[in-house]
């Protein structure tokens, strides 16, 4: 059945997008990746064809829709570095909101009614409670989070006005690499803790910084919910099936429901790598919530999502094995 279902994936050459394209291809979907390769890599697209183009190019987007005729769109393409969003807000509003609007307009014009959106726990800002569930107020504290929240508002309004259904997946801290070793995080400017930790363990960085050791947590460092990228890819496939089977528009947290502190991640990386790398403790970064953990009951109950890789050492191990393959 899936061989007749066509999925357009924007940003499918990037870290998370490429894992989802791989999962779609393995399940027999027809996949077309649309990516400007500003951060993605051509050889990360393991299934289907690749169109190298920008979402700002409305004419190219229209032609791709007319020729490919997708049944659904999965939208990953975005700028994602929080500190950069503070320095360059116009870039983030243009890319994350205006270009998403171009994509959604193309969906409406071409009659594509199923839309899967890559959102973020950044829409919650500093939540009042943890774990945080999907009913919590949206209170983003940086331009990146605000652009994601704006798209969510747009999708909610549109689903009321049109025959258009969406699922928004709010990612927590995505980490690790494809268990077969074919894909992983390739951005040279990646800022994720686990990526930086394994780079330091392999001698690609001189030291790892811990930002803030005086938070009201069990060891004074921030606590985050880390989800393996392959479990996240499976969540996308379940959400896609839900939409194709006429599920109603909805929003789901994507996390494991518990967190690890920065110190715990550092310790796990040292254990897995066997390297006691240098760590420097420094001051807090502005806007870091002490704890950000997903209440994941909704995605488990509604989509029957059953994560397989909820193990911080396994997550670190796959990230380390992938990083070993990359040049210094």
UniProtKB/TrEMBL annotation:
GO molecular function, one term: UDP-glucose 4-epimerase activity
Domain NAD-dependent epimerase/dehydratase span(s) in chain numbering: 7-255
Gene3D superfamilies attached to this UniProt entry: NAD(P)-binding Rossmann-like Domain (3.40.50.720), UDP-galactose 4-epimerase, domain 1 (3.90.25.10)
Enzymatic class: isomerase
Cofactor(s) demanded: NAD(+)
Pathway stated in the Swiss-Prot or TrEMBL entry: Carbohydrate metabolism; galactose metabolism
Highest taxon of source: Bacteria
GO biological process: one example: galactose metabolic process
Keyword hit for NAD: yes
Matches recorded under InterPro entries: Epimerase_deHydtase (IPR001509), NAD(P)-bd_dom_sf (IPR036291), UDP_G4E (IPR005886)
Keywords tagged on the record: Carbohydrate metabolism, Isomerase, NAD
Catalyzed reactions per annotation: UDP-alpha-D-glucose = UDP-alpha-D-galactose
EC annotation from Swiss-Prot or TrEMBL: 5.1.3.2
Subunit structure: Homodimer.
Family the entry assigns: Belongs to the NAD(P)-dependent epimerase/dehydratase family.
Database matches in NCBIfam families: galE
Name of the protein in its database record: UDP-glucose 4-epimerase
